[in-house]
Each structure stands twice: as C-alpha cells, then as structure tokens.
Amino acid sequence: MKKSVKLLVMGVAALGMLGSVVSCGDSGTECPVCPDDGGTTSTGKVLNIWAWNNEFQNRFRAYYTGYVKTEGDYDILRDGTKVKWTIHANDNNGYQIPLDEALLNQDSAADDDKIDMFLSEADYILKYSNSDYTLDVEKDIGLTDDDLSEQYQYTKDIASVNGALKGTTWQATPGLYAFRSDIAEEVLGTSDPTKVQAMISTWDGFNAVAKKMKDKGYKMLSGYDDSYRVYSNNTSAPWVTDGKVSIDNNIKKWADDTKTYVDSGYCGDTTLWSGAWGKDQGPEGKVFGFFYSTWGINFTLAGNSLADATAPAALGNGLYGKYRVCEGPASWYWGGTWIHGCKGTDNVSQIKDIMKDLTCTRSVANSITRIEQDYTNHQTAMESIAADESYGSSFLGGQNHIALFTKNASKISMKNMTAYDQGCNEKFQNAMHDYFAGTATYNEALANFKTAVTALYPELTYNF
Which pLDDT value is given to residue 41? Predict the structure, then answer.
C-alpha cells in the first residue's frame, strides 16, 4: 500500500511538471499531435482507450453510431479503426498508477500503443486536466461552442483550466435521497415523495425523522459515510488554499452530526461500499434511506435491493419497486466520468466523433436516459424527459426521478474544487471512523488525518 501511494504521488508530480511544456493550441505553436488540417484526418490503426470499469465501454458499444462490432480483443469502427480497451479497477489506485506510468512513457510508445483517450472521475479530474497530457476539446479536437451548448455548465467548469476545456462527459450527476416506501408508510404515514420531502427538506427536519425511525427500530442512514458528500459539496471554501489545508465548517459539521447520529442510534456503523452497507439496501435491511446520485440509484441501489441477484430485476424481487426519491436537505452531486483526448494521439478525428456523438447529441442523450435511466449531459433532452408524464422508473415504482434530478443539476457548483480533493476527502472520512467508533478523540482523529494527507501531499501545510 505504501508503495502504491508513493507511485501515485510521483505520478502527480510528474504530471504537474509538464505545465512547462507548450501544449496544443498555444498561439504560434505547431501542434505536436494534431494534423495540419485542423484535426480532421487521422492515420492511427488502433484507438487505445483506458478506463477503470466497463461502463463507458458499454455506452460506447450501445450508443456510439461509429461502432460496428466486437471482433476478438477489439471493437471495430465503421472506418476500420480497431479500438483496444485497457481496464484497471480503481481499488487502491489500481487505475491511476498504471495510467500515470503509461502517460510518462507516452512519447516513446509505438504509435498504435499510445493512449488516445482515457477517462477520469470528478474526484481526480483536475490532476489530469491540469497536465499537458490532455488535449483542448475545442482547439485541439475540434468541438465547437455550439456542439457543447447543451451541456451543464458545471460539467465544463470542472474540466476547464485557464479557459481550455480538457475533457467532456455524457453524464451529469446530481444527488437525491432514496428512501423505502414501505418504511415511510409505517413510520411517517405516507410514502408520497412530495410529503416526505417536506419533512426532510432541512437538516432539522431530517434529524426529527431520524428520531422517529429510531423509535420504530429503523436507522435513518446505514453508516458513517452516507451523508458526507451532501456536506462536502456545500462548503464555503476549498480544502487547499495557497498550499494550506483547512477544515471547512461544513466538513466539521459532518463530523459532529455523524457522531451524534452514531451515539443516538440514528445510523449504523457501516462504511461506504462494504458488504454490510450493501446488505442494508436489500430486503433484510432496516435502513430508511440512502443518499445516492444518478448512477448510484439505477446501478448500485437497484442491484443491492434484490433478494435474488440471479433472478430478473422486477417487482417482487426484494425491494425492487419499493424505493422512492426526494431532494433531501441540500443539493449535491456525486461522481461523473470525463473523457479526455490524450496528447500524442494519431486518432483525433475518431476522438472528436466519439465525444460529439456521445456527449453532445440530443438523440443519444435521450436514448441513454430512457433505456439506462442514467442522467445525461444534455439539458434540453433532460428537461423533455422530466416533463414527460408517461416516463417513470419501474425500480422507483413508476416515479419520474429525472424531474428531480433536473431541479438539482443546475445548482451544482465546482467553485471550491481543488486537485487535492480526493485525498483530503478520503483521508478525512477514514480518520473520523475511529472517532465515530469511540476509539479516538476528535483531535486524535484530526492528527491522524494530517499524517495521512502529509504522506500523500508532503508539499502541503495546515491551518489547524
């Protein structure tokens, strides 16, 4: 584990040093990766795409109009280009470490071995957007302001550096509170999402409902981490300013409130992604609800709700059809996947076509949302589905969750985001687990947080 962390830090440092390299789009500079015709012609026979799971691969094969078939180890495009996928799981930085190493060797790699496209998550997108390994989506790849006009502004802000858009995405990821209708009926006397929302629209209301749940033998939340992003997405200042780490009041409030929840019996002691946390979302669970964003509801929660994972997902299989969603006490978001064009590619025209097709096209966005129930990055398409009275999620009992997502998507702000967010968020949560469990004081947990962050980012100092 120590070796992995060290490699990651070295990768970050190396990427950061590339800021001194002249990037494509600089005035008067010949672009080292784009052809002289402005990026409309490519000669590469293999398009190499790096990712950490097969979500984008599935979207690519199902919705990209240039995809023809899968043949052996490659996908084949209509122009004959072969697509090679390299997928490393995210666990323990298992994706970023080999990606960083490959990027450092990009210049010396054979043409058809060079990375052409790679994906990043919101938690660490700035690490790559801030490097010269990512191409300007407009100047280098060729998408226009008109192409990108329907995308949510925050999805562009998060990938922009000094006016250059360094990545694009087919998703927007606002969050909601998903609750069990059967428990709502028993404890609150209603499962109507509008009425439940009125009860939990503030943290005071949320806490009052938590007490009612506890009195009836239920938990409001599963564990320590469930509400973290609702707080961390609503801070008044970034984690790091001028090289100094600060604990925002809202982050401290999460720690205080979660400790109260643990001590009051309002939540359990699970951690995010643990087996116990997933089990709490199924028919044996005694938890009222979970904070989830777009992808989490239709992927993770829907799967965890089933009594029999081998049987069809349908009404009668566990809690399928019994969850509902409401906005909760604050607007927030979680996650998202961005597509980057990589410096050194010889497949610029294919990258442009993929980005335009999957992230800018209304018909594609409409199809992905209606078929996959994922929330896509096209405002007009989402507003149309939100207003469609015939649209509904069978998993959510026919509720049109897109309508609620649409309310929150426009409220998302990235103004306090920094390149250190992933490490700071993860290490703070991990350090506070001991505080919540009663095995460390808050100050001891804070000291452990500082030690962990120093190991990741030795250049930082602290304001606490």
Answer: 44
At 92 the pLDDT is 86
Q: Has residue 388 got a pLDDT over 90? A: yes
The answer to whether the CB of 86 falls within 8 A of the CB of 95 is no
Note whether 196 and 235 are same-domain residues: yes
What CATH number corresponds to the domain at position 224?
3.40.190.10
CA gap 333, 233 in Å, rounded = 7
Is the pLDDT assigned to residue 35 strictly greater than 50?
no
The answer to whether residue 422 sits within a structural domain is no
Tell me the residue range of the domain where 345 lies.
2-172+335-360
Q: What is the pLDDT of residues 176-205, one digit of tens each?
A: 999 999 999 999 999 999 999 999 999 999
Say if residue 219 is in the same domain as residue 99. Answer: no
